[in-house]
Design brief:
12 helices; six-stranded mixed sheet; two-stranded antiparallel sheet; 2 domains; 306 residues
């Protein structure tokens, strides 16, 4: 198997591109895909300070490493979810990376800030653990970006993630979500950072191979909250299609991006939360309502015990 570019010995085959690459050319391929994503979608400029949300997994660490290699002013943000041993391993993975690459890292701990981890919070609300976790993380990375002066927040969502999300939104015809699904969510309020997904042109397999070949020690353990998640079912379905017809995920998602103008993003009446000051469409934001629900359930439980 020969490398498509240099004709040397290939180490990886990418069936969706009908190509194979040697190690160095594969590194160039991934870096070029991130550069292409950034330039075509106008994700950020050299003047922007970029906050990369890093879990300790392959996608976020690969993204951070690539952005640092491109000379981007990219800091890492790790949100410790308070999920016992899993969160300890995640934080260790991120700290090790930051130390090895002499990179700037910010860490926020949900349990330290709010007295309980994400599982405990979810257990006292009507949300699933995965839903509560997503809400909390979105709130915190925007809050940290605002407080620390970052204009852009970058996440490690890859092509597999975006295609699975798109499939779910189409199956249930969630037109509001379809209108907002994009590699870039621009800032529509002074208190909202721009959100970007520089890995949307790359698959999960490609970022994993990049980390392995680069020697990036990432956490291979899956988050326990994703078990049973509908997004996993959508990924499994797409993987079956991809095996039979390489390029299916790319065709689905990039075809949507060409047609997404059909789905109008919802018009939002944005205001500042009366409790925390973050941006919301209601009097209080979803995060504060979540905490209020937890406080209420905790208070009722204590009263019953008394």
């Amino acid at each position: 198997m020969k490398c498509r570019r240099c004709r040397g010995q290939a180490v990886i085959e990418l069936r969706r591109h009908n190509s194979s690459f040697c190690k160095d050319c594969f590194f160039d391929y991934l870096t070029n895909q991130v550069t292409l994503a950034q330039e075509k979608q106008k994700m950020f400029s050299r003047e922007d300070r970029v906050l990369v949300v890093v879990s300790g997994g392959k996608d976020s660490l690969a993204l951070w490493e690539i952005l640092l290699g491109l000379g981007v002013n990219a800091w890492g943000l790790h949100i410790n979810l308070g999920i016992d041993e899993y969160s300890q391993k995640s934080e260790k993975s991120v700290r090790n990376f930051a130390e090895n690459y002499d990179a700037e890292l910010l860490i926020t701990n949900i349990k330290d800030e709010h007295g309980r981890g994400v599982l405990d919070i979810a257990s006292k609300t009507t949300r699933t653990a995965c839903s509560a976790c997503g809400l909390i993380k979105r709130y915190l990375f925007n809050k940290v970006a605002l407080e620390k002066g970052f204009s852009v927040v970058a996440t490690g969502h890859n092509l597999d993630d975006e295609a699975a999300s798109l499939l779910g939104n189409v199956l249930h015809w969630k037109e509001g979500f379809l209108g907002r699904q994009s590699p870039v969510l621009p800032s529509v309020h002074p208190k909202l950072a721009r959100k970007v997904k520089p890995l949307f042109r790359l698959t999960e397999r490609e970022t994993a191979a990049y980390c392995i070949l680069k020697g990036i020690d990432y956490l291979k353990e899956e988050c326990p909250l994703v078990k049973g998640s509908t997004s996993l079912h959508y990924k499994e379905a797409l993987n079956l299609l991809e095996q039979k017809s390489p390029g299916t995920k790319h065709s689905l998602y990039f075809g949507f991006l060409k047609k997404r103008a059909v789905f109008e993003p919802p018009q939002l009446n944005l205001k500042e939360c009366l409790r925390c000051g973050q941006v919301t469409t209601d009097e209080t934001c979803a995060f504060c309502r979540l905490l209020s629900e937890v406080e209420s359930k905790t208070r009722v439980s204590k009263e019953r015990i008394c």
